[in-house]
Amino acid sequence: MTTTIPQQPGPAAAQPPQALLEASGVIMRFGGLTAVRDVSLTVNSGEIVGLIGPNGAGKTTFFNCLTGLYVPTEGTVRYRGAVLPPKPHLVTQAGIARTFQNIRLFANMTVLENVLVGRHTRTKEGLFSAIIRGPGFHKAERASRERAMELLEFTGLAEKAEHLARNLPYGEQRKLEIARALASEPGLLLLDEPTAGMNPQETRATEELVFAIRDQGIAVLVIEHDMRFIFNLCDRVAVLVQGEMLVEGTSEVVQSDERVIAAYLGEPFEGATQAEHEQENDA
Amino acid sequence: MTDLPIAAAEEAATRTDTGRRTAPFVPMPPAAARAATLAGAVITVASTFMSWTYTTDFPGDLTVSGYPGGLQVLTLISALLTGVIALGAFQVRGLSWLNPSRSNNSVLLLALATLGTTWYTVIDITAKLGGLANLDPGAFVAFVGALVLFTGALALPIDRHPEEAPDAEHYELGWAERFPVAVRSYVWLREARLHHSELRVSDARKLNPWLQRLAIVVVYALGLKILTYGLATDYSDIFIGYLIVVAVGFWGLGAGGLLQQFQQLTRRNKRFSATVGVIAAVAYPFAQNNEHWANLGVSVLIVGTVALGLNIVVGLTGLLDLGYVAFLGVGAYTAALISGSQFSIWSGVQFPFWAAALTGMAAACVFGVLIGAPTLRLRGDYLAIVTLGFGEIFRIVVRNLDGVSGPKITNGPNGIAQIPDLSVFGYNLGANHSVGSFTLGRFANYYLLMLVITVIVVLVFTRASDSRIGRSWIAIREDETAATAMGINGFRVKLVAFALGASLAGLAGTVFAHVTNSVVPDPYVFSGPVPPNSAFLLAAVVLGGMGTVSGPILGAALLYVIPEKLDFLSKYELFAFGIALILIMRFRPEGIIPNRRRQLEFHEDEAQAPGNRPMGDDTVPAATAGA
C-alpha cells in the first residue's frame, strides 16, 4: 500500500506501468434497467484516466461498482490483483478513495475533522484506547492531526482548518473532499466531476491539484464533462454511452472518434455501429 | 467582526456602525427612557421593603415592612439585577462588564422578568385572597414600579432582527388574511423579533488568571445557591415566581453576553472549572440537611446519567432509540438479582458493589449488542420503530418471567423487593454518617456514589466523542454513505455506540435498583408519568441539547424537578411536557445548551457571511469589545 506523503514525489511514475485497477465485464442491472453493460477498464499505476459520456451514460453507476457501493450484477473488479470486497469501507481500506458528484462532506464538522475522518482506515485507536488515553493514543492522534494538516496545506485549506465544512465556498468544499479522500492514503483516487460548477480559474487550479496528486504516485480516475479539462489532464480517456464503452484511448484517438462526436452532439451518423442500433432497439 | 448586510435604513430604526438594527418599542426621548428604567428599578426595589398584604394567609410572609420576604425577595433580586445591567448598558464606568455587548435587549428581558414575577405576585394575592382589598400600598407601588421599569426598557433602543419585516402583502397567511388585525399583529411580531446573535464579548485573556478562577468559583457558588434556593421553595407560588425570574433572567443575561463571557472563561480554564463544578456538586448534600432534596439529587443524577448515555446514541451517532430505558432496566434487574435480596432467585448471592456494577454493565452491553445487531441494519424511522418494540419486549418479558407464564426469574409484576443497601469499602450507604457538623443520610450517601458514576460517564462521553471513534459517530450522523466511503464500517461503529450507551445505562441501573430498594417492570415503559421512561430520557436529551455533556443532565434536572415542585401540574404533567417540547422545537431546536454545530445548523439564516467566522468548539467567536 502506498503511504507516500505529499512532500515526497513517489517513484511510481518512473516504474514500468502495472495494472492497478482492472474492471472486466462489469454489468450492473437495476431490475429491468441495465445501467452498465459489459464495461472493462484498466487503470495503470501513475496514470490519469478520464471517463466521459453524456448524462445518464452510467458513469457514476460504474464508479459505485468500483467502490463497493453497488455490487456488480456480473463481472469482477480487481485492485492490485485481488478481487475487491463488496463493501465500501473495505474498498477504501484496500486503497481506493473517492469523491462524490454532489458534494458529500460532513457539513457540521470542521475542515480538519473532515480530513481526520478520512484517516479512519489508517489508524487503529478503538473505544478503550480513547477512554484510557494512554501515550499511544496521544501519539496516534498527534500523528493523524499532523498528516491531516499536511493534506490541508497541500490543498490550500490549512488556514480554514477550524471552519465548519458547510461554511466553505463551493470550490473549497470540492478541494476538501479531495483532501479527505487523500487522507485514507489511497493508491487510486476516483474523482466524480471534480470541476462541476467551477469557473475557468478554479478548473485550472483543480487540474494542477490532480497533476500534483499523480506526481505522488497516486493513480487517478476522473469523471468529467469539461472536455478541455479532460483532454489536458488525462493520459487515456474512456467514453461511456448508454452504459456501454464506446471507445478507449489517448486524447487524440478519442477526440477524433466520430462516434464520440455523435454521442455528444447527437448528429445523425451514417456509419452507426451495430451496438448503437441495438441500443435504439432496446429503448 | 460584524458585517451584516446593511439594507436601507428605516426611519424609525437606526443602524449602528456594527450593522445592528435598533429601534425602541415605545417612542420616548432617550434620556427619559433611561431615567424611567432606573426610576422603575428603584421604585420596585423600594416596594419590596414595604408590606404587600395584611394577612399571613398568602404563602410566604408578605406583611412585614422593613425587609423583603417570600416572593418579594425574587422581585428585589430581579429589579436590582435589571438596574445594574441597565447601568452596564448605559456604559457606566465599572459596571459595563456586566453587559459586555451593551445591548438593551438584556435590560428589556430582565425588566420582563421583574414585571413577570411582581405582577404574578400581586395578581396571585388578589386571586387567592379574593379581591384588591387584600393589597397593601406596597403592592400597588410594586405594581407601578415594575410597569415603569418595563415601559422604560421598552423605550430603549432594542436590537432587532437585521431583516426588516416585509409588508403585510408579502405573507401568505391563508384564511387568516380575512382578519386584518391578525395580519397586522403578525407583521408586528415579525418586526418585533429581537436579535442578539452577534454578541461582543471581551477577551478573557486580558484578565488576571487568578481573577478568572475567582470568577469561576463565584459563579459556581452562585449557581449552587440559586439551585438550592429553588429547591427550598416549599409551595408552588414561590416556585413559579422563581421559574419566571430564572428562565427570563438567564435569557436576558445571555442576550447581554454575560453568559457567553462566562462560557469563554470556563473554556479557557477547562480543567479548573470542571474541578470547581465537581466540588460544587459534592457540596450540594452539605448545603442542606433535607433527605428529600438528596433524594431529588440522586434521581436527577440517575436520569441525567442515563440521558447522557442516550446522548451517545442519539446526539452523536444520530440513531433514534425509543427503547433505551430497557438497558436501565437490565442493569437494575441484574443488580437486584445479585444483591442478596431474599426475593431474588439467587438470594444467597451478594456481589460487592464494584462487581455488581461491572456485571450490570456487562449484562446491559450484551443486551445492547443483541438488540443492536439485528436492528442497526435499519435506518431512520425504521430503527426508531424497531427499538420502540424491543423496549416494550423487555418489559413484557420481565413481567412474564414469574413462574407462571415463564420460568421464575424476575417475580413478574411483583418485582424483586427488599434489595439491601450497598456497602462500599465498608461504608454502609444505608446508614447515617456524620461528617463534621453535617449528617449524611441514606440518599445523600447514594447521591455521592452516583456523583462518582456521573463523573465517570461524563469522562467516557467527552473522551470518546473527541477521538477517532467519536468522529466516526458524528460522520455517520452527518452522512452515512460518505462515512462508509471514507472507510468507516458503519454497522460496527454504530454497534459500538449502541453497546456503550447501553452499558452506561446499565451502570446507572445498578445504583438505581439499590436507591429504590426494589425493581418492578412498570417504570421501564416507552412513555409514562413516572420519570425513567424512554420518552422522558429522549426529551431530556432534546431539551437540554443534543451532543453536549451538560445539556442532557440539565434537561433531566428540569424535567424531573419542575413537575416535582408544581404539584398542581400532576394531572396535566404529560400535557405540559408535550407543550414544552413543542415550544422548544419551535423556538430553540438546538436545545437549552446548544452544541455550536447544531446551533449553526438550525439558525442558518442568522449566520451571516459564511466563511468569515471560525467555528470550532474551542475557538472564541468574537473578542473585540475591550473597555
UniProtKB/TrEMBL annotation, chain A:
PROSITE patterns named among the record's database cross-references: ABC_TRANSPORTER_2
Transmembrane portions of the chain: none
Keywords noted in UniProt: ATP-binding, Nucleotide-binding, Transport
Pfam family, one: BCA_ABC_TP_C
GO molecular function: ATP binding
Family annotation (SUPFAM superfamilies): P-loop containing nucleoside triphosphate hydrolases
Record domain ABC transporter: where: 21-267
InterPro entries to which the protein is assigned, alphabetical: AAA+_ATPase (IPR003593), ABC_AA/LPS_Transport (IPR051120), ABC_transporter-like_ATP-bd (IPR003439), BCA_ABC_TP_C (IPR032823), P-loop_NTPase (IPR027417)
Gene3D superfamilies per record: P-loop containing nucleotide triphosphate hydrolases
Protein name as it appears in the record: ABC transporter ATP-binding protein
Upper taxonomic lineage: Bacteria, Bacillati, Actinomycetota, Actinomycetes, Kitasatosporales
